[in-house]
Amino acid sequence: MTLSPAEAPSVDRIGADRPRSVRPCLTELRLSAFAGHRGVGFGLGAVTLFTGRSGCGKTTALRAYEALARLGAGAEAGEVFPDASACVPDRARPDAQRRRGFRIGCTADGPEGPVRLDVAVQAEPELRIVGERLTAGGLVLLETALRDPSRRTVQAVWHTAGSASVTRGPLPDDRLGTALLPLRVAGKTDGQRRVLAAAEQMVVALRSVFACDPRPGRMRAPVPMGSGRLLGGCDNLADVLWRTRAECGRRHALLVDAVRAGCPGPVADVLARPLGDGTVQALLDRGDGHHTALRRLGDGELRYLALALVLLTGPGVLEVDPAGEVPAAMQTLTVLADGFDRSLDPHQRRELLRLAVRMGERGHIRVVGAVSDGSWITGGGGVDGSGGSGGDGVKVGEGVTVVHLEP
């Protein structure tokens, strides 16, 4: 799929008139030239769902978001793009030097106002970040460009507003310059401090990301205890349940309420039981002395339970790398959930979405996901054949940004 600006996907913002959070967060993802996308930008809300048929680019959009997040956390380009050629737009032709690449970008809102980041990556003949621009309030705060292809550096220029208007220096071509600015900018002038504040806002908005796609087949068996934080595939769900139940009774009670709302049959508790061999097994307490092991649950129940746990926890429980120098109260965790509705029945997807919206309203959690059919979100047929509202009259899609993609 290749989209021109005139063919940009439509965006529905249901309940978008909400006060902006002071916590840095991404409000736009731009795919200027990335895989099947060209010249498009997607507005992002507290809960954003990409919808469309297979092959329309939903997973690609999430992959671009995750790539920016990893670059913002300081990862090398080779780690972020192991198959960089797959990110080059369809039918892109090499230039005279046989170079091909792609361009992605985003906008982070927060205390400094909207800050834009645009990145140009050369994928062939060798991977390198060849251009980057950080702007705020119409002012270019950082700009890099590849001047000498024989060197593994780019020439960087950043705003100073002191005795000299800008400062020039080399930066490595395999890392995001914005993430390196705190190591290079002294912060002695108002201009330098503005650069640092904008870069910090962008990095904080990017790096606290948890890419999550629960794999039920790996969640049914007992797992070793003490494995640490929850993995993206939720393979170690039983061990994390053991930890969270002991550490935070309030959040665990909220999880039990969520599981009770989304899973059939009575649910009195969600347990984790050590088996004596160094492993732990997760179970549902049915309230009458009967326990149901996770191995007996269906894929939808397991995915629902895992995603509910993710939404109700935070960076201390999930396998993420938040900005340690910024207080947790000033950070927002973004959950990237490909196949958000995969294997879920209509009732489960409704309850999970409503949980995501409730957590998003608090400002600590944001969700960017992909669903195959978005009609149930916006009310086109609803989740139970009666419209887009739940049993309490609350519209399912309220507070959700829906991005419709076409192949």
UniProtKB/TrEMBL annotation:
What is the top-level taxon of the source organism?
A: Bacteria
**GO MF entries:** ATP binding
Keywords attached to this entry:
ATP-binding, Nucleotide-binding
Q: Which InterPro entries match?
A: P-loop_NTPase
User: By what name is this protein known?
Assistant: ATP-binding protein
- According to its UniProt entry, this protein's organism is Streptomyces spinosisporus
